[in-house]
């Protein structure tokens, strides 16, 4: 939508879209299976839809949790590998790890008991079957850290969108934005540290040159970063700013497909369900 | 009219963009240190709000206009930084600040186009407390502005009524987080300062401020008196 409609039209649009979304989603087996049919036990439609929303929110939180657990495992391994990280860089990743641990706790605390199975944490093989030595080779470590952080930043966006569409409480809306915001700071720092090791074109923000010397199997993480149209606004046509800077100025959302590519690189598969 | 302009400008000089230590970016609200009058200044009459009130709108439109105004501020600040770049800037540093300037201009122009006829008129700025010849002054103020912008995005998200607008701010806010980290890293390179306790809590949560708190930090450099009275507020 190019222009904002009057408030009333906004509300009508939102209500129609939500109603449509619910009709579509309740047709999906994996979700409908956990919902008690409304008619069968006389539950009000309102209560059933609240259950549905809570389930969708928990699914999104659980997906984010998987990413945070991956980050936690990656950085714990790096920090506890004797003699690997030292000095400033150790301090930085130690702080990042502290944040990741807290993120895991917060997410677990906020995933309500709704019958959603707590999946045991995936154990990743960060050597990618021997392709990399991330816990003895600093460049490998930083390259994989870059992928992991940029993936986290992008994936948070699609899950936050779900959480907001499903009417999460304000407190939870705030938390997920602040979690994702911290991840963006991590992402900059990792890219910056890597850029100092000979990657002159690598910046703290993403453009196509981000893909320098990264595994081809995870190129999907950066596939959409050429995009310069946002909310139907063709940005190059309304600003004098050059195209590369425009590409850098927006971080693209990532769905479960690129995240699956990253998980797969590290030897794991995760079922993200029908969406 | 010119008398009112003069007194408004004096008022701006009295309320300062305070030093970093006085900035309460952790959501504590109003600056705790009262503004100090510059000595020797001819203090005119207090500004009358009616003359300068600049209405931003209500609801989601008001929120977008608020964001648009802050992006205007960022674009104006970093444009001035680059136009006057301090002489001891390293090449990498200049590249980073130029990138940030470009990004903020793109953001500003995007919001203006997105808002269309709902966009407020451009606002005027006076970054009088920044010494643009001083690296430390520029980076100190850049940090305040970027951290405050990050806190703004984290704070406005929950206030939107229409969830369809959330993807718009999602794609931009993380870039502001990168900017804020870049500035902090320029001030204290390769340390934990960029992800430190003054902006990320012990819970690993980045700062968040509702529009009222954001405006408390930024109003001294904004010439117009912004009317945010009809913006949504946190519950």
Description:
The complex is a heterodimer of chains A (275) and B (235). With 275 residues, chain A is mainly α. Chain A has a single domain (58-265), classed as Up-down Bundle (Ferritin). In chain A, 57% of the residues lie in helices and 1% in strands. Chain A has helices at residues 7-25, 29-32, 38-41, 45-80, 87-110, 138-165, 170-195, 243-249, 256-265; strands at residues 229-230, 233-234. In chain A, strands 1-2 form a two-stranded antiparallel sheet. The longest helix of chain A is centred in the first third of the chain and has 36 residues, at 45-80. The radius of gyration of chain A is 21 Å and the shape is globular. Chain A starts with 6 loop residues before the first helix and ends in a 10-residue tail after the last helix. Mean pLDDT of chain A is 84; it is low at 4-17 and 19-40. By secondary structure, chain B is mainly α. Chain B has a single domain, classed as Ferritin, core subunit, four-helix bundle (Ferritin, Up-down Bundle). Helix content of chain B is 51%, strand content 3%. Chain B is built from seven helices and two strands. Chain B has a two-stranded parallel ribbon with strand order 1-2. In chain B, helix 4 (91-115) packs antiparallel against helix 6 (166-187) and helix 5 (135-156) packs antiparallel against helix 7 (211-218). The radius of gyration of chain B is 17 Å and the shape is globular. The chains are: A mainly alpha (275), B mainly alpha (235).
Detail the poorly predicted runs of chain B: 1-50
Strand element count of chain B: 2
Q: How would you characterize the largest beta sheet of chain A?
A: 2 strands, antiparallel
CATH class of chain A: Mainly Alpha
Residue fraction in strands of chain B? under 5%
SSE ordering of chain B:
HHEHHHHHE
List segments of chain A where confidence is low: pLDDT < 50 over at least 5 consecutive residues.
Answer: 4-17, 19-40
Query: How many discrete domains of chain B?
Result: 1
Q: From N to C, what is the helix and strand string of chain A?
A: HHHHHHHEEHH
Q: How would you write the strand order of the largest sheet of chain B? A: 1-2
CATH class of chain B: Mainly Alpha
Helix content of chain B: 40-55%
According to CATH, the fold-level topology of chain B is Ferritin
Average the pLDDT over all residues of chain B and give the rounded result: 83
If classified by CATH, what would the architecture of chain A be?
A: Up-down Bundle
Strand order of the largest sheet of chain A: 1-2
Give the largest interface pair and sizes: A-B, 69 and 65 residues
């Amino acid at each position: 939508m190019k222009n904002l409609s009057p408030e009333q039209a906004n509300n009508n649009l939102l209500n129609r879209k939500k109603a449509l979304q619910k009709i579509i989603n309740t047709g999906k087996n994996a979700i409908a299976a956990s919902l008690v049919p409304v008619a069968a036990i006389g539950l009000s439609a309102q209560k059933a839809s609240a259950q549905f929303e809570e389930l969708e929110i928990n699914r999104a939180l659980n997906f984010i949790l998987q990413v945070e657990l991956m980050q936690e495992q990656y950085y714990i391994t790096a920090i506890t590998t004797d003699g690997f990280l030292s000095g400033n860089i150790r301090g930085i990743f130690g702080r990042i790890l502290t944040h990741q641990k807290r993120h895991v706790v917060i997410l677990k605390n906020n995933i309500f008991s709704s019958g959603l199975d707590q999946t045991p944490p995936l154990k990743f093989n960060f050597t990618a079957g021997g392709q990399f030595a991330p816990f003895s080779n600093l460049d490998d470590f930083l390259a994989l850290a870059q992928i992991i952080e940029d993936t986290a930043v992008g994936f948070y966006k699609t899950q936050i969108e779900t959480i907001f569409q499903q009417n999460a409480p304000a407190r939870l809306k705030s938390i997920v934005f602040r979690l994702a915001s911290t991840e963006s700071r991590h992402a900059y720092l990792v890219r910056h540290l890597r850029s100092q090791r000979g990657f002159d074109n690598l910046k703290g923000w993403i453009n196509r040159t981000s893909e320098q010397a990264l595994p081809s199997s995870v190129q999907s993480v950066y596939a959409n970063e050429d995009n310069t149209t946002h909310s139907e606004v063709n940005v190059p046509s309304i600003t004098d700013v050059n195209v590369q800077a425009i590409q850098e100025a927006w971080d693209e959302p990532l769905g479960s497909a690129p995240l699956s590519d990253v998980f797969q690189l590290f030897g794991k598969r995760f079922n993200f369900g029908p969406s | 009219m010119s008398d009112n302009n003069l007194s408004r400008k004096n008022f701006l000089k009295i309320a300062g963009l305070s030093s970093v230590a006085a900035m309460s970016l952790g959501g504590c609200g109003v600056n705790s240190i009262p503004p100090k009058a510059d000595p020797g200044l001819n203090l005119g009459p207090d500004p009358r709000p009616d003359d300068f009130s600049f209405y931003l709108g209500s609801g989601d439109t008001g929120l977008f206009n608020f964001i648009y105004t802050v992006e205007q501020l960022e674009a104006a600040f970093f444009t001035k930084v680059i136009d006057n770049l301090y002489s001891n800037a390293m090449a990498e540093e200049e590249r980073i600040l130029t990138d940030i300037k470009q990004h903020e201009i793109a953001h500003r122009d995007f919001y203006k186009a997105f808002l269309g006829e709902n966009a407020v008129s451009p606002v005027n700025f006076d970054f009088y407390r920044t010494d643009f010849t001083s690296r430390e002054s520029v980076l100190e103020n850049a940090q305040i502005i970027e951290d405050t912008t990050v806190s703004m995005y984290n704070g406005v998200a929950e206030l939107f009524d229409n969830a369809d607008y959330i993807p718009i701010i999602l794609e931009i806010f993380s870039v502001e987080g990168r900017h804020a980290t870049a500035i902090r890293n320029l001030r204290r390179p390769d340390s934990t300062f960029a992800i430190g306790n003054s902006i990320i809590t012990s819970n690993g949560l980045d700062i968040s401020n509702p529009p009222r708190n954001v405006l408390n930090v930024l109003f001294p450099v904004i010439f117009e008196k912004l009317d945010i009275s009809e913006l949504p507020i946190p519950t």
